[in-house]
Predict the structure of CCA-adding enzyme.
Amino acid sequence: LPEVFLKAQPVLQALEDAGFEAYFVGGCVRDLLLDRHIHDVDIATSAYPEEVKKTFAKSIDTGIQHGTVTVLYGGEAYEITTFRTESGYQDFRRPDKVTFVQNLEEDLKRRDFTINTLAMNLSGEIVDLFDGLGDLQKKVIKAVGVAEDRFHEDALRMMRAVRFMSQLNFALEEKTEAAIADNHVLLSKISVERIREELVKLALGPNSQEAFDKFIDTGLSGECPGLAGQEEKLRVFTQLKGRITDEAVFWALLALIINLPVNKVTSFMRTWKNSNAMGQEAKAIVTAFDQVTMGQVSNWDLFVFGQNALTKALEAAALLGQPVSSQSLLDRYAALPIKDKGELAVDGGWLIKKGVKPSPALGDLLDRALKGVVLGQVANDEESLAAFLDL
Ligand code: ATP
Ligand code: MG
């Protein structure tokens, strides 16, 4: 067993010793069986939250109304959730009510896909009530029970389905796919942030090309901000020349693929509730991309792009199969005398000491000095710069 499980075994043991049932459940068991990296383990138990808290010295009430207690043990934090069912879902996204139950089966039934219903006990025995093992073997994402009903309960599951396709390199089971196609409009009930999180995971997954295909085919893409009616353009994502490895590169690609003008990138990023930093980065990449793919890139342009936007723009160009002489641009960038404004040997204070009055002209002089150094017209030292600026 991987280290994460071994470390967590005493937690299960403590619950069992206190007379409760406890299992590893969900994604961690799936990923164990797929031999994928496991980032955290989730634990399900018959103990009520209060009983979980009594069993351990340190705990935090993270989501006690949903039955989740975070237990701190051996320097790790474990989410321990009481077996529960959900009901209601009037709003297609959150259950109106969760009910604690005493058996594991009821708990597993409420989960989204068969491969996410697997549980494992302390001795490593797998509980498989919905043929999750069979579907792992067949490599399919299949809703638990009636797919249609499950997507009505929680429309985010439709995005999770295509996201798992991408991450796990699985196919969508037929009925599950049909139910997504029939119910894609329900995605509009889900907050943009939650859709975004799934879409980014989809984009960065190893099987993103097929997942994008389904994301488009089923109509899900049309429910996303700024993507309605862009189906044909979005198909470009199914023909990329490699794998997207960076979130900002994904957003830049998306903007480029739907032909968004540079000055619309930040507002587009905002409609997706991205951070300002992510918005700026995507815009910088699109800007650099436009220039490198048009040719005519000066050393000053390279300096203004900076290393990050430049390398990511080249990555985007490579993924889109655009011919760009990346290596020569990177070599030219590497050879720039300075890479950052802060490396300039002089600053405003120095100019003032040289007798320049604080004024807009001072800013212009600094700009000239910076450009001169970046373009290799003057050495980056005080004496050379004083002569260059006639001071
Ligand atoms: P990962 O953490 O790798 O993204 P995961 O399967 O662990 O994947 P989580 O969101 O961490 O996904 O959820 C843990 C488990 O909770 C899932 O495996 C699944 O059993 C259940 N689950 C999560 N979200 C939903 C949902 N929207 N509907 C039903 N069950 C869900
Ligand atoms: Mg998880």
Observations:
- The two ends are 71 Å apart (CA to CA).
- The chain has four domains: 1-133, 139-239, 242-336, 341-388.
